[in-house]
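User: Predict the structure for this protein chain, please.
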Amino acid sequence: MILTKRTFLLGMFFILIFGLIACVDVSQGNSTNSEKGDEVETSDEMPELSKDEEIVEIGYSGPLSGPGAQYGLNVLNGLEMAADEINKTGFEVDGITYKLKIIALDDKYLPNETGVNVKRMISENNPVAVWIPHSGGVLATQVTNEADDYIIMAYTSEPRQYEQGNELMIGIPPQYSVWAEPFTRYMLENFGTRMALLPTNSQYGKDWSESIVPVWEEMGGEIVYKTEIDFAKETDYFTIMTNALNKNPDVLFVGGPSEPTALVIKQAKELGFTGGFMIMDQAKLEEMSGFLGGYEMLNGSIGVIPIEDLDSDSSNNFVETYKDLYNEQYATSESALNYQSLYALVEAMKAAGTVDDKEAIMKAVNGGIQNVSEDKAILPLKGIDDVGALQWEFNAAVIEDSEIITVPVK
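Assistant: Here is the predicted structure, written as structure tokens:
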């Protein structure tokens, strides 16, 4: 009976992952020219162990080559930074000191590769949790993770991941639906009612658009133009933007990876657009400012607040340490939230008194979150809700006169 059930689940797993390939947009990650070969395993080094110390394995399957490489590296860097800090002394559970080993595999943003990577980890290793930073990979691995007994650490703002009722999944970032009302209110109050939709053509972009349209219309706005941009293929946005501006919009809804989103905004400005930009949560204001030479072209934009503008002791220390450690211009929310969530997972294992019982660890997450030290709490984290979504206090930001201004999100 058990064999029959596992065989059925395995069959369903392969059907789903191959079905998901068709709707995956590898352009969701930040643009980069880095190519690292067919297989990249960047973090499989054993930490130095003292006598009687043991290992807890943490998996990562995400883009480390191709168009999504920088996005994936931002996530992985946050994990590695936290793991290196934790491993300086280790952590104790039930009288045993443990250290973390991160096993990182490249999936090129493809759900079928995520499935292959995770199956490899399960057969060769014993990860307590696997970080997956894209919705396609999360939806694919949800089919079997409970049977395979590992926790999915889902770094995607896609609300659909919670529909399965998966009891071994933690959703890390805020769901993008939280941004719809504050983004809409600001744009209607400051720019006008006419909005053109120009999101990335990924499933994430389609779902984000479907989420924002009813809110925009219910609050008095209208959609005057709608298209999608394939950032994996499109590099010249003149025709797309000309068609959109011919409809005289007050607001442009844009988003996807930071670099091409910045170029879309630049094209709009060069064509004389003076309205507002509603920016999806994947594109980061700070990263786009780097591509645009500052915040001037982003005046009139609303998006997710940059980590460096939180201006707390813990966030300032994180940003400076991260930039020095990885020689990066910015520390983004991808790095910060995954850094903090690894600390929360370790504290949950300590609170549960086990590194093996995944159900007990999940039940202890709220207690673990409360035990994360103040200097590691980059953003306020209130807990985890009934469906497994972490509950952050996270504000939006607008750019006015080339300056960041915080917009509270209720």
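The longest helix spans residues 2-21.
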